[in-house]
Structure formats: C-alpha cells, structure tokens
C-alpha cells in the first residue's frame, strides 16, 4: 500500500540518529479537529467542521485545511463511515509546504497532526529503505507511512510532542494518539455512533446539540488540584486522552490503550560517573533535536537551573548568539530578572528583558476564554505575558519544563523526606508530631515557618500519598467539606479525588517516598498543569514551545535513577549540578527556588477586590448551589483583614465562576 515494494520489518534500525542543523524539513505547530460517524443522520457537516477548525485559528494562523467525506456503502474495504479532519497550521520549517490533512499515495490513510516528530529524519530514511515513496519533506508524511506498516504500534516509534488523528480506511476506524508526557492536548467525545475530537475543548463545543452538562466530580477534583485531571473534563461525557495513550473507534467499539508504560518500580544500579555521562549524552541530543527551525528561535530564561541549562546547551550547539527572553514584575518577590541577566551575561546571549505591570482586570477574560475549562494556576498570567512578548521576536522558544519532576527540584520534597524519616519511628514518631502540633500556635501568616510546621504535623498521621495530596491541595478534604453546600455533596459521585494521585504514587512500588512523589508529579502535575499552562499560553500567541527535558529517552533514564543521585544535603538536582556545574554561575546553583507567580494576595485586597466580592457573593454564583455562602464570606473576610492568605483558594473560586459565565451561561 503506497510503496514500491513489499513490506519489510522495521526491526533493527535506530530511531534517534543525530540530525544536521539547517537541513530543510517541514515541521508545524498547529491545532486539529475532526469527527467520525457511521449514520448519515449524525453527519458533522463541512460547515461545522470548518467552525471547529477555525476556533483553533490562534494555534495555526498560517494555513488551514479540511478533509470531509460522507459515508457510503460500496468502498474497496466495505461500508465506509463518514469522516472529517481539520487542521490549522503554524509554519516552522520549509514554510511553503506541509499542508494538512495529508494522505498516503492511495488515500487509505489520512492524518491531521499537531506537534513535532523530532526523530522523523531517521524514520524517513528507514521507510524509504523499505520502499515508501515520499512526496514532501515533512514529518507528517512519516506518520502516514509508518502507520501503513505498523498501525497503532507507530506511536511507540515517535520521539516528539504530538496529538495525532488518523483516518484508517482499511480498518474503517478513526485513531487518536497523544505524546508520552502530555505536551500536546487532545479532547474527545463519543456522541452516539460518532466521535468528535479537537486540540482544545472549544473546538468540540462548536458542534450543535453537544450537551454541556457540568460534572460535579470534575469540580471536586478541580478544587483539589487547581485543574481537572485527565481523563475527565469539566463536562460530563467529554474526555481528555491520557498521555502516552491511543484510542480507536469504529462506530461501535471504543478502545483506549497505553503505548508507553515504563516501570516506575525498578531502579537502576549505576555509578555517579556513568549517570553523569548518560545524562550529558541524552540532554545534549535532546536539545539538538529541538533546534530544527527555519524561523527565528530562542529560549525562555528565568534564571533558574533548568532554563539556564537549556540555554547553555543551545550555546554549545550553535555558532549563532542564542536569543533569550525573561519577564520581570515590579514586586521584588516575583521578579527573577536579575538572575536571568546574570546567566545571559555569563553565556553571552542576545537577551531580551521585559518589565510588566500585570493588568489583572484586562487579563482575566483572555485567560478564561483560552483556558476553556477551569484552570487555577495563576502562573498562567506571567506565562501569557512572556509568550506574548517572546513571539514579537521569535516563533519557537525552548523552555526548562520537566527538570523539577525528573530531578527532584521542588522545595516540597523536603517535607516528603522529613515525613519519611518520621515514619521510620512508627507510632512514636507520629505521636511526637501530633504533640508538636498542639503546641504550635494556629495563627500567623500562612507562609510562616510556624504555619508550615503546623500543616506538616497535621498531615503526618496520614499515609504518604494522602498527606502529599493534603500539602499540595488548593482545598484539602477538610476545607472542601466546609465549602460544599449539602445539595452539592449529594450530587458528587462516589469517588475520591485522591484516586488520581494515588494511581500515580503506587506505580513506584517499594521505592522511597521522594521517588514516589516526584514521579507522581511527572504523570499528574506536569501534564495536567504545567504542560497545559504552557501549551495554551504559547499557542494563544502562535508561539511554539519546545521542552528538552521532556524527551522521553531522558525521562526514562531519570525515572530509573536512584534518589541518591537526585537529592543531597537537603537539595535536589544533585546530578544536574555534577554533570553541568561548570556551565552556570555558582549563584544560580545556590539560589532559592522562587516559582513563577503573581501577587494575588495584594490584588485581592486592591484592584481585584471589588470584582472578587461582587462575583463570589452574586445571586448568579449562589444559584449554582455549589458552595455554602457563610464559608465564602469567611474566606473573603479572613483574606481582607490579612488574617489568612486565601489567595489561591479565592482565585480558584473566581476562575470557576467566570468560566461558567463564559462557557455555560446563555
């Protein structure tokens, strides 16, 4: 099918050969949408398909295309269902080509594809050796030809970030696949005998008659995590395809399977020097693969370890000055530009620094529209600004996302380690912690050491995974119980939001708690929060963001590393320092992690106070029947009087209500 000689085995070839920078390729970032149906009465018309596709125009302003066909009874492979594929394109490489949807020679395989296949050079060479004929130089064509040979097994050969839809005419089915670590989003809904899908939820909402029924369990999970975990969405019946999975649907049967399932419970035995050598090899090759572009390319530079290492490695691999971008705010505690400036000067980058005074009132409607289900990570605001300003100079930006999860970089892992030490003393240790809690004062600033110590002591009697959720929750179980209206409690499903984290936590088996926490973050917080935040903010400005730490080969290596090579002397990223210590100023290795935030606490006592109070105490909000009004008023009063910093909780509640008004209310 679509090649000049018979099918040959794909075994025994390297998928990861280094690529030469500057070669002509076609790589695109974009948005996809589509539908599949059997009954002609359930057709998704070409007009609706265009609306679905055009709702994603911000993701791909350079080009658009659709493929639409009606069901018919007499095809070469039997009765052929109806199918529609839509594509919006942001051109990155070989700007004149790469139009999608794209088919193989005999049009039995069609694809619409969002993302990049970084190893497509080596895949193409192998496919050409097997007899396939290529009409373009794009990574998209590798997908259709490899799918001809391998079917759904093709996904396991791709090294990249992607959401892929394949119309497989020979088997009369639609196939969807998502990258291993959830860098690219993919939503879907089975509605009778038809399947709808899109890169963003708003694409599906263009289909007339699609129900918008709120899932109470999704609200419960959202207020726990600050996002709606996969496979749920805020709407009942609409789902996210989990990372590392593919879906097949033939009009009757829907099947979802994982093509990437590394064993988190197995730890490798490796010396420090061997680990260092392997890390350098994998990380350098990952950055090199992500430097392919025929458009201006740069990097986000926060002045933290991860983004700085990405920039240092970029400098090593190119003769041209690296363009770097950082954003600063008037509030010193949220401004990292001095660190970014030191790194830029040390590495000799072409540095661009933006000072911004965030306008929350102007920003909120944009965030609510683009994050088209409730999303309460307020760092979406600075991510939005840095993406907007970076896009004025480049089309592609590399970032350091993933380093904290892979190499134990979060400060909260200190509490995980300490709690594990207390657990070693059994009931005696837990009794001592409870006694300490009674002696600690209940008042004081939320982020004070006393407040943190009390919160630690309160959770110590829980299981390791449960107490970790208690620490990271926006509203923990107790606070959600105080918040919910009795009628809303009755609407909640008989499920516990903890199940999402626990399913990830237990994958580490008998390994230490630090490993369990960091790898749970890798498969929960990273795809659902960080990758969602970056994808939506960057694509809203037609900026492609590439994340070298999320090359799956590097991830598999880090997953199996013993925690002793990640955590030393109360600090994470030990192996990164051992491998790359000479590439960055010493102050960067020793600096305290700041995070990427905005001053919500002062906004809610200043420019956002009126909007916050009016929204959360309005009759519209009350009529939803979700929350106890006395609890809402207590949160507002305690925050207003500086008795307690409830800013993250109030932000989550404000976003939820404004989202309803944008996407649900008439």
From TrEMBL:
InterPro entries membership: Asn_synth_AEB, Asn_synthase, ASN_synthetase/amidase, AsnB_N, GATase_2_dom, Ntn_hydrolases_N, Rossmann-like_a/b/a_fold
Pfam family, one: GATase_7
Transmembrane segments annotated in the record for this chain: none
GO molecular function, one term: ATP binding
Functional pathway: Amino-acid biosynthesis; L-asparagine biosynthesis; L-asparagine from L-aspartate (L-Gln route): step 1/1
Binding residues annotated for L-glutamine, in chain numbering: 139
Entry annotated with the keyword Amino-acid biosynthesis: yes
GO annotation terms (biological process): asparagine biosynthetic process
Active site residues according to the UniProt entry: 30
Chain residues that bind ATP: 327, 399-400
UniProt keywords, alphabetically: Amino-acid biosynthesis, Asparagine biosynthesis, ATP-binding, Glutamine amidotransferase, Ligase, Nucleotide-binding
Domain Glutamine amidotransferase type-2 stretches: 30-252
Site feature Important for beta-aspartyl-AMP intermediate formation, where: 401
GO cellular component: cytosol
Catalytic activity: L-aspartate + L-glutamine + ATP + H2O = L-asparagine + L-glutamate + AMP + diphosphate + H(+)
The keyword Phosphoprotein is assigned to this record: no
CDD domains: Asn_synthase_B_C, AsnB
PROSITE patterns hit by this protein: GATASE_TYPE_2
UniProt-listed SUPFAM superfamilies: Adenine nucleotide alpha hydrolases-like, N-terminal nucleophile aminohydrolases (Ntn hydrolases)
Enzyme class: ligase
Family note: Belongs to the asparagine synthetase family.
Entry protein name: asparagine synthase (glutamine-hydrolyzing)
Organism, as annotated: Bremerella volcania
């Amino acid at each position: 099918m679509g090649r000049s000689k018979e099918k040959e085995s794909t075994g025994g070839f390297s998928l990861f050969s280094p690529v030469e920078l500057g070669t002509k390729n076609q790589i695109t970032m974009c948005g996809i949408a589509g539908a599949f149906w059997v009954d002609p009465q359930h057709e998704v018309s070409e007009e609706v398909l265009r609306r679905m596709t055009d709702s994603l125009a911000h993701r791909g302003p350079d080009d658009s295309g659709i493929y639409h066909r009606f069901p018919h009874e007499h095809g070469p492979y039997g009765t052929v269902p109806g199918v529609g594929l839509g594509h919006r394109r942001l051109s990155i490489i070989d700007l004149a080509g790469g139009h999608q949807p794209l088919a193989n020679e005999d049009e039995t395989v069609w694809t619409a594809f969002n993302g990049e296949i970084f190893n497509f050079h080596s895949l193409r060479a192998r496919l050409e050796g097997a007899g396939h004929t290529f009409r373009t130089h794009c990574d998209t064509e590798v997908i259709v030809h490899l799918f001809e040979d391998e079917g759904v097994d093709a996904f396991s050969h791709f090294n990249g970030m992607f959401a892929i839809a394949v119309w497989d005419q020979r088997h009369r089915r639609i196939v969807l696949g998502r990258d291993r670590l959830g860098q690219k989003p993919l939503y879907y809904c089975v509605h009778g005998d038809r399947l709808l899908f899109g890169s963003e939820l708003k694409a599906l909402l263009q289909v007339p008659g699609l129900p918008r029924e709120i899932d109470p369990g999704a609200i419960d999970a959202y207020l726990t995590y600050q996002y709606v975990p996969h496979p749920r969405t805020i709407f009942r019946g609409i789902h996210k395809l989990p990372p590392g999975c593919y879906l097949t649907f033939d009009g009757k049967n829907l099947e979802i399977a994982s093509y990437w399932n590394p064993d988190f419970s197995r730890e490798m035995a490796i010396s420090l020097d061997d680990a260092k050598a392997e890390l350098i090899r994998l990380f350098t090759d990952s950055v090199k693969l992500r430097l392919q572009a025929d458009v201006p390319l740069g990097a986000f530079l926060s002045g933290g370890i991860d983004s700085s290492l990405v920039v240092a490695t970029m400098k090593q691999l190119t003769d041209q000055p690296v363009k770097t971008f950082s954003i600063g705010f008037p509030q010193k505690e949220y401004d990292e530009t001095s660190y970014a400036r030191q790194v830029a000067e040390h590495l000799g980058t072409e540095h661009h620094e933006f000072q911004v005074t965030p306008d929350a009132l102007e920003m909120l409607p944009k965030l609510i529209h683009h994050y088209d289900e409730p999303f309460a990570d307020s760092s979406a605001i600075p991510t939005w600004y840095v993406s907007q300003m970076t896009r004025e100079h480049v089309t592609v930006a590399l970032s350091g996302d993933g380093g904290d999860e892979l190499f134990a970089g979060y400060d909260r892992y200190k509490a995980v380690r300490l709690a594990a030490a207390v657990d070693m003393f059994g009931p005696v240790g837990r009794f001592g912690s409870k006694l300490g809690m009674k002696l600690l004062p209940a008042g004081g600033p939320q982020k004070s050491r006393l407040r943190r110590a009390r919160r630690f002591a309160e959770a110590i009697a829980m299981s390791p995974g449960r107490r970790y959720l208690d620490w990271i929750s926006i509203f923990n179980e107790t606070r959600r119980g105080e918040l919910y209206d009795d009628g809303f409690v009755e609407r909640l499903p008989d499920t516990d939001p903890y199940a999402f984290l626990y399913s990830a936590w237990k994958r580490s088996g008998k390994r230490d708690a630090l490993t369990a926490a960091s790898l749970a973050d890798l498969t929960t917080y990273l795809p659902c929060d960080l990758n969602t935040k970056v994808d939506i903010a960057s694509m809203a400005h037609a900026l492609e963001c590439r994340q070298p730490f999320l090359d799956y080969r590097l991830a598999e290596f880090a997953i199996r590393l013993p925690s002793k090579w990640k955590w030393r002397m109360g600090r994470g990223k030990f192996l990164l320092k051992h491998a790359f210590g000479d590439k960055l100023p010493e102050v960067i290795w020793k600096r305290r992690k700041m995070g990427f935030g905005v001053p919500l606490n002062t906004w809610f006592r200043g420019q956002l106070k009126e909007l916050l109070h009016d929204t959360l105490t309005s009759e519209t909000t009350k009529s939803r029947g979700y929350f106890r009004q006395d609890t809402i008023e207590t949160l507002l009063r305690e925050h207003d009087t500086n008795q307690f910093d409830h800013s993250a909780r109030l932000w989550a509640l404000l976003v939820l209500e404004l989202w309803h008004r944008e996407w649900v209310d008439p």
